[in-house]
Write a structure and sequence with these properties.
By secondary structure, this protein is an alpha/beta fold. The protein has 14 helices and 17 strands. The chain has two domains: 139 residues, Aspartate Aminotransferase, domain 1 (Alpha-Beta Complex); 256 residues, Aspartate Aminotransferase, domain 2 (3-Layer(aba) Sandwich), CATH 3.40.640.10. A seven-stranded mixed beta sheet has the order 4-10-9-8-7-5-6, with helices on both faces. A four-stranded antiparallel beta sheet has the order 13-14-17-16, covered by helices on one side. Bound molecules: pyridoxal-5'-phosphate (PLP). Pyridoxal-5'-phosphate binds next to α4.
C-alpha cells in the first residue's frame, strides 16, 4: 500500500468542509471518484452564494450605489485572485467566461478569425477533450486551414519528436491540454510552448484538468492562452477563465457584443470598445459564481496545490496497485507523468455495467468516452471506466472502490 505518512494533509478535517461527503447513495456512504468531471464544493464556497444574494446582490461596474460598489469590488477582487493563482503578469490578462469550453471558443472566434486563413496549420493532439477539437474544426470548415494531430504513443504520452516534425512555416497555433482528462497524462507544455514560439506559432493550453492538481505559472509555461473551469477546482459551475497575454488580447477583436464591453455606442459612428479584459465580457457576467470561484481558489491556496498534488499521486499509486489484482483489467494511460486519473477496461465486462453496478455500492466513477472519442478510438475502445481523485479522497475510499470493483467484475465476467 502507498505510504501517506509523510504528507501533512489533514484529510479528516478537510472533508468536514464538504457537506455532500456525508450523504449516502443506495444506503452506502458516498465514495465520490468522478472529480475529473466535477469536483465537490466546500461550504466556504457554498456560503458565498448566501452572502452575495443575502447582502449585496447588484449589477456590477455601472452602479453608483453601495451594493453595486460592493459587488464590483468582490468581482474585480477575484480577478486579482485568479491572476495570482495563474501567476499572470497583469490582472487585465484575466477574462471571465462560462468555462474552459467558452474560453477556447473565444480564442477560436476572436484570435482565430483574425489570424488564421486557408493554407495555415493548427496543431492539436490526439489527447484533446472535444472542447479543444470541435471549435477548431468548426472554424477550419469556414476558413479552410488545416488541423494536424500530434500523435500519442501506446502509454498515452505525446510523441514529442513527432510534434517537432509537424511544424512548417504555415503553423500558426498549437492547442493542447495540460493534463488529459481521459488518461491523466501530464503534457510538457512549457517545452511545447518553447518549440511553438521557436516556429513563430502561438500556444493555447487547456488547463481544465491541471488547475485542480498542480500550481500553474502561465509565465513559466510561456502560454499565450490558458483556460480552466471553476467547477473542476472546487468552485461553482457556470464560470471559468481565459488567460491571454495582454498584447494578444489587446490586438484581438471582440467576440460577443453587448453591454459592458463598449466605450461608446453610436448609431452614426463606429462603436468603440472597452479596454481588456472587459472588451471580452459582454453582458452581465455570473457575478456570484465569479466571487465564489475566488473563494474556491483561496481554499485551494490555503491547503496548497503541491500538497494536494502529492496526496492525489499517492491515491493514484494506491489505486493502481489495488486494481492490478483484478483479472482481465487493463489500465489505459500509463504515461510516466500522470495526474490522479485511473482509466481502465475489463475484458468481458462492459464499462457501463461496471459503472451502474458500482454505483449501487455508493461509488461514483465515470464511464463512457470522456469527451475524448479520438483518443479512445485510437486505443480501440469506445468507453472506459474512470476513477479520478481529489484532495478529500482517502486511501480507505480507494479500498472500498477496489473491493467493490472486484465484486462487480466477478458478477459480470
Ligand atoms: N478540457 C478538458 C481537458 C476537460 O476535462 C474538460 C471537461 O471535462 C473541458 C475541457 C471542458 O470543460 P467545461 O465543460 O467546464 O467547459
Amino acid at each position: 500500500m502507498a505510504d501517506f505518512s509523510d504528507l501533512t494533509l489533514d484529510v479528516a478535517k478537510l472533508r468536514r468542509d464538504f457537506p455532500i461527503l456525508d450523504r449516502e447513495v443506495h444506503g452506502k456512504p458516498l465514495v465520490y471518484l468522478d472529480n475529473a468531471a466535477t469536483s465537490q464544493t466546500p461550504r466556504q464556497v457554498i456560503e458565498v452564494f448566501d452572502d452575495y444574494y443575502g447582502r449585496y446582490n447588484a449589477n456590477i461596474h455601472r452602479g453608483l450605489h453601495t451594493l453595486a460598489d460592493e459587488a464590483t469590488a468582490a468581482f474585480e477582487g477575484t480577478r486579482e485572485t485568479v491572476r495570482a493563482f495563474l501567476n499572470a503578469a497583469d490582472h487585465r490578462e484575466i477574462v471571465f467566461t462560462r468555462g474552459t469550453t467558452e474560453a477556447i471558443n473565444l480564442v477560436a472566434n476572436s484570435w482565430g478569425r483574425a489570424n488564421l486563413k486557408a493554407g495555415d496549420e493548427v496543431l492539436i493532439s490526439r489527447l484533446e477533450h472535444h472542447s479543444n477539437i470541435v471549435p477548431w474544426q468548426l472554424l477550419a470548415g469556414e476558413l479552410g486551414f488545416t488541423i494536424k494531430v500530434i500523435p500519442v504513443d501506446e502509454r498515452g504520452a505525446l510523441d514529442l519528436a513527432a510534434y517537432r516534425d509537424l511544424f512548417t512555416e504555415r503553423t500558426k497555433l498549437v492547442a493542447v491540454n495540460h493534463i488529459s482528462n481521459a488518461f491523466g497524462t501530464v503534457n510538457p507544455v512549457a517545452e511545447m510552448a518553447r518549440v511553438a514560439h521557436e516556429h513563430g506559432a502561438r500556444i493555447l493550453v487547456d488547463g481544465a484538468q491541471a488547475a485542480p492538481h498542480q500550481a500553474i505559472d502561465v509565465q513559466a509555461i510561456g502560454a499565450d492562452f490558458y483556460a480552466f473551469s471553476g467547477h473542476k477546482v472546487y468552485g461553482p459551475t457556470g464560470v471559468g477563465v481565459l488567460y491571454g497575454r495582454a498584447e494578444l488580447l489587446e490586438a484581438m477583436p471582440p467576440w460577443q457584443g453587448g453591454g459592458e464591453m463598449i466605450k461608446t455606442v453610436s448609431l452614426e459612428a463606429p462603436t468603440t470598445f472597452a479596454d481588456i479584459p472587459h472588451k471580452f465580457e459582454a453582458g452581465t457576467p455570473a457575478i456570484a459564481e465569479v466571487i465564489a470561484l475566488g473563494r474556491a481558489l483561496q481554499w485551494v491556496g490555503d491547503i496548497g496545490l503541491p500538497l494536494i498534488g502529492a496526496w492525489e499521486a499517492r491515491l493514484l499509486e494506491h489505486a493502481t496497485e489495488g486494481v492490478a489484482g483484478i483479472e482481465g483489467l487493463r489500465i489505459l494511460g500509463t504515461a510516466p507523468e500522470k495526474a490522479g486519473v485511473l482509466s481502465f477496461v475489463v475484458d468481458g465486462a462492459h464499462s457501463q455495467d461496471i459503472g451502474l453496478l458500482i454505483d449501487q455500492l455508493g461509488v461514483a466513477i465515470r464511464t463512457g468516452h470522456h469527451c475524448a472519442q479520438p483518443l479512445l478510438s485510437w486505443f480501440g475502445v469506445d468507453a472506459t471506466c474512470r476513477a479520478s481523485f481529489a484532495a478529500y479522497n482517502t486511501p480507505e475510499e480507494i479500498d472500498v472502490f477496489i473491493e467493490g470493483l472486484d465484486r462487480v467484475v466477478g458478477m459480470l465476467r
